[in-house]
Structure formats: C-alpha cells, structure tokens
Amino acid sequence: MGDEDWEAEIVKPHMSSYVPVFEKDRYSSGANGDTYNRTPASSSEMDDGSSRRDHFMRSGFASRRSLGNRDPGESNKRENISTMGGFGVGKNFGNRGFSNSKFEEGDSSGFWRGFQDGYDSEASVLSRRGGRGSFRGCRGRYGLRSPNSEYEQDEGTQRNGGLFGSRRSALSGAGNGDTYQSRSGSGSGRGGYKGLNEEVITGSGKNSWKSEAEGGESGDIQGPKVTYIPPPPPEDENSIFAHYQTGINFDKYDTILVEVSGHEAPPAILTFEEANLCQTLNSNIAKAGYTKLTPVQKYSIPIILGGRDLMACAQTGSGKTAAFLLPILAHMMRDGITASRFKELQEPECIIVAPTRELINQIYLEARKFSFGTCVRAVVIYGGTQFGHSIRQIVQGCNILCATPGRLMDIIGKEKIGLRQVKYLVLDEADRMLDMGFGPEMKKLISCPGMPSKEQRQTLMFSATFPEEIQRLAGEFLKSNYLFVAVGQVGGACRDVQQIVLQVGQYSKREKLVEILRNIGDERTMVFVETKKKADFIATFLCQEKISTTSIHGDREQREREQALGDFRCGKCPVLVATSVAARGLDIENVQHVINFDLPSTIDEYVHRIGRTGRCGNTGRAISFFDAESDSHLAQPLVKVLSDAQQDVPAWLEEIAFSTYVPGFSGSTRGNVFASVDTRKGKSSLNTAGFSSSQAPNPVDDESWD
Ligand SMILES: Nc1ncnc2c1ncn2[C@@H]1O[C@H](COP(=O)(O)OP(=O)(O)OP(=O)(O)O)[C@@H](O)[C@H]1O
C-alpha cells in the first residue's frame, strides 16, 4: 500500500471535529531512527524467586514504607535506555508501516508494529540529538517516564536548563534548528517550543521570559503567529452555574480521615454557614448546587480565612478548587476590593497558576461563577491563544488572574501585570507546578520584581499527589508555619473509582480496546495513551471502527483542543483519546470510564488519570492495560494503590510486583507509592473536628508512612 492508499484508507465517518493529519513526511522520518529497547524493569538483587517472595513479604509489602521504594537501579536502567537506543538498529516507520503492510493487517507485522517502531525511533533520535536533548533521564527522582513519551521528549529538550535553570533559556540559547518544534509541526508551529504538557516556550537569554510578548509569540524562533481567540465564556446565569449532581458516595466523604499538621491549625468548619461568607458568595454557592462542604473544604476554608499558608492534598474530584476560591473571594469581599477598571498595568490581588490550558480555563470559570454579582473580576490567559487577546482581557481589569506559567511570565514581561498587590498565590496541581518542568518558572515568578515575599503574601498549594521531594521544594514558597492538610492518603486513588488491571500485550491492545468500547456503548470514556502520535493514531483507528472519537494532546492547535473537549463534554464524541495533557484536574460531567491504553510512567499520573472519573461522589471505572514488558516498574506501586483503595489485586500483578521488588531503599524516591504525609512531621497535630485526633508529634523518619 502506498502512502496515498494509506491516506485514502483512513475513513472518518464518525469524526466530528477530529481531523488527524497524517503527513507522510512526519512518519517517514525514522529512516535513521533507532529502536528503543524496552527493558523489563525487574532488577531484583535476589536470584531465587521464593526467597525473593519471602523477603518481599517479610519486608512488609503491604506497608507503605516498603512499597513506596523505587528501585534506583531501575531508574538508572531506564535513564540509559535512550543512550542504548541511540546506537540500536533503526527501523523505518514508512517502510514497515506504509510500504509493507496494510492498516488492517495483523499486529505483529502490520501497521501497528510499524507505527510503534517508527514512533520509538523518533523518540530515540530526539533523545540522542546533541545539544538540546541529548540525554534524557527521569524527572529528577520523581519522574520516570518512558523514553517514548511526549513528556519525555520535551523534558529532554529542557534538561539543559538544569534543575532550576531557566526552561526558556535552556531552550532558546542553543540556537540550533534541531528542536522538537521543528519536527512536531502543527500545535507548536508558532515557533515556540511546546514545553511539557502545554506551554509555548520561546525566548532567549536571561530575559527570555519576555520574548513571547516582544517577539509576537514566536520569540526568536520563527513560526506562524498565533491568532486563536477563544470564544467568550457564557454570560447567562444558567450556563455560569451549570453543574452536575453529586453522586451516591458524596456523603461517604465524611468518613475519610483528615490530618492537619503544623502549629495552631484553626478548627474545621462543618457547614458553609460557619464560614461566615458574605451574602453574594452564599447565594453563588447555593446556585452552584453546593449544600455541603467536602472534607478538603471543611479544613482548608478556615485555614485560608485565618490567613495561613497551606499545602492541601485531597483525592481527585473532591472539591479542591472551591476550597481555595471561596475563602480568597471572601477575603477580597471583606477587604472591600476596588472595582476593576481599564488600566494599562493591572495589579491583581490573586494569581492562580495551573499546568494546562484547559485546566486553568476551568478554574477561571469556577472563579467567575463564585464571583458572580461581585465587583471582583477574574481573567484567564494561557498559551496557544492570541497574545493580544490576553492583553485585552487583562487591561479591562483584573483582580484574579488565572494563568498558565508561560503566558503569565510573558505578560509580566510585557508589563501588563504588576505584582505588588498580590496577596494570594495559588498553585493548583502544585506538585506538577514545582517539579522540574514548571519549577523554574515558578521560582522566577516569586522572584519577579514587585512580587511580595512569602511573608507578605498567602501561598496556597493543592493537589491529589504530593511527593516528598516536592514538599521539600515547596518550603521555599511557603511560610515556615504553613499548614498541611491531608485528606485520606496522600497520593491515594479515589475509592469511588473501580480499578481493573488487565494484562494486555502491546499488540493486543487495540483489539481489547475496541471490545471494551463496544461493550461500553455511548458512555463517556477517556482513553489515555503515552504519546501524541499514538493519540492521533488510536483516535483515527477508533473512528475507522465507527466509534465516535476525538482527541486532545499537545500537538493539536488550541482551537482543536477546545473543540475536542467541547465535543466530548457534550457527548457528541463519547470517546476522548488523550495524552497526559488531560490527566490532571479536568472536571467533565459523566465520564464513566477511563482506559489506560498505555499506563503512565508514574503512579501519581495514574492516580490523576483515573481521577477523571468517579468525581464528587459519583462512581466510575478505570481499566488499565498492563504490558508486562514495559510496565513492570509500576507493578509494586499499582498493587499498593489498588489495595489501599480496597480494589481487587490480580494475582499475576502481585507476582510481577514480587519479582520486581527490591528491598533496601528508603521511601523517598519518586517511585513512591505515596509520599508520607507532611514531610516536616513532628509538628503534627491531627484535626479536632471529629475525624481523628492526636497531638503526638511524630518523628521525622520513614515510619511516617503509616
Ligand atoms: N461542596 C460541594 N458540593 C457539591 N459539588 C461540589 C462541592 N465541591 C466541589 N464540587 C464539585 O465537584 C467537582 C469536582 O471539584 P474539583 O474540580 O474542584 O475537584 P478537585 O479536587 O480539584 O479534583 P482534581 O484533583 O481532579 O483536580 C466539581 O464539579 C465541583 O463543582
């Protein structure tokens, strides 16, 4: 089958908005590509299976402390993969996929294999390239990713920036054309490097964060100008307050154990009335359909109202957004905020940052909802949209600025935002915001001229996962007496999600996926894959199978991303194929199923992904395809997550976990199943409001896992 035939064969009868572009050039670029040699992650130091199992059991497999350990040996091994691959034998996608096989052919020799090989080749090529992305490692100690991941490719490019070097500087300085964006085309085609999950990274030198603005969004790397202007948010009250129903398990939230650590935590509140919010806020809360506080709200609201810094960790879908928005708005109302008006330089009182465009937009809509009828004006700005549009939104007035990091830094560089008035800095998905991807940007933000010091502002961090390393980094942003709220287990999966893990080899995945989706029928389903190309491929494949599907990933234009999300939300396309860009935060009504076609590289991402279902007391189901060849490093943490969420653990998964178990590592690497609670421990005082209570300080050691 020639290239033309291939293009003709992709029939899209059920595609609405999703129009993948299969450019032959893109897929034949693997001519010199090298194979990524998947390395089984079992690297136990023990030879004998039974003694390994004994040791495994003795070492307390069921205890968090042992389970959380990631094998550094494995980490090293995985780090080296790209290097190995770099000298491996190349396979050409074009030859194997297009020329020799038809799309419908068997998995082992057909397109699928060709796609995989071509894809892997490309990843290897990227990771080998000199200068920018020459060596890829794990995300510090807490970010193992397979080398073929979208994230990893980006990460490799930014790695030269060093742990807290400038992501942008690192990208822009090299000046060679051998960049990710030069390959990936559409979504990042405006010339900027599309960093991590979402941002366009441009610029050069020490003031590189100014360049997106000054260079008309393309900075010093040439590319088309971004002209996309997102549609305005709904104006009618019904749409603003549209919400979905809490589920049958909403009341069970009350039984979740909550721990607050840090000194002099204010007592939790049990009702909205106790929060003493102003009438307008109360009315908005009622219109939003909130009658009862969720646990994270019960604890966080009084803490924030009391002016304290906060790090809060609560399960996915349990209302963290309102937990910070409501008290911030209450403060603003109480302090008598001045109504926004047109000014060239706006000085917002609150800045909220989140890692992805869709998520920050969602937070903005929530802020707009809760501030309805007040003089507080929320504004959202994010990459992939016309820069001038962002500026126009801001100059009209801005009390709460919701932004993705890249666009925020650019707008600050353009001097449209002054930071002197900032009283609240919120990092949603804070562990993501502080990791090596966005950490440098966040550090720059807090050291920008005018930004009040941490003593003078209130800093709030929220996530469902909080690795210990990240908690330690967070200290730089927070006052030393910050409070730590842990609802349930830090990093634990939501119990309302039924988790099923199936052992499926990579060449059987498509067939299994179709089988499952046919059984599911029209129920909304998110299918997660590891790479952008695979997202395109699987979406196309499903459409060809007559399953209405759309896709979202970082190579799609922002317009397409929003259209895809819209089509999924309204049910026009009940299947959304997504990369990690959609793993965190997205709150979409009626997502009944999450399918991990590819498991993510870290257990945290798994927790976030499956949290797209089973939200707000509703139930959901997550099915994960576990490929023993590539996913064995996840076996241990997966067993832990499953058992802690009281899910069935397949015997075969336990076996793999046994066989890959390596004793003797302390629980502090990113492979941890969970971070412990508050890394400061020893200052712990549990809540006094009825869930559990203990004033006894805990020693700072691994025992804090329990
Ligand atoms: N007290 C409440 N009563 C009813 N619904 C609520 C309440 N609090 C939040 N919700 C709703 O629950 C849903 C999930 O909330 P939210 O998106 O804030 O969760 P989250 O904890 O931030 O999740 P994630 O970890 O995935 O980001 C939203 O639709 C929100 O409007």
TrEMBL record:
Biased composition (Basic and acidic residues): 71-80
GO-annotated molecular function: ATP binding; hydrolase activity; nucleic acid binding; RNA helicase activity
Domain Helicase ATP-binding: 301-484
PROSITE patterns on file: DEAD_ATP_HELICASE (PS00039), HELICASE_ATP_BIND_1 (PS51192), HELICASE_CTER (PS51194), Q_MOTIF (PS51195)
Chain segments carrying region Disordered: 22-90, 122-226, 683-706
Pfam families to which the protein is assigned, alphabetical: DEAD (PF00270), Helicase_C (PF00271)
GO cellular component: perinuclear region of cytoplasm
Reaction it catalyzes: ATP + H2O = ADP + phosphate + H(+)
SUPFAM superfamilies linked to this entry: P-loop containing nucleoside triphosphate hydrolases (SSF52540)
EC number(s) from the headed UniProt entry: 3.6.4.13
GO terms (BP aspect): meiotic cell cycle; regulatory ncRNA-mediated gene silencing
Ranges of biased composition (kind: Polar residues): 29-44, 684-697
Name of the protein in question: RNA helicase
Gene behind the chain: DDX4
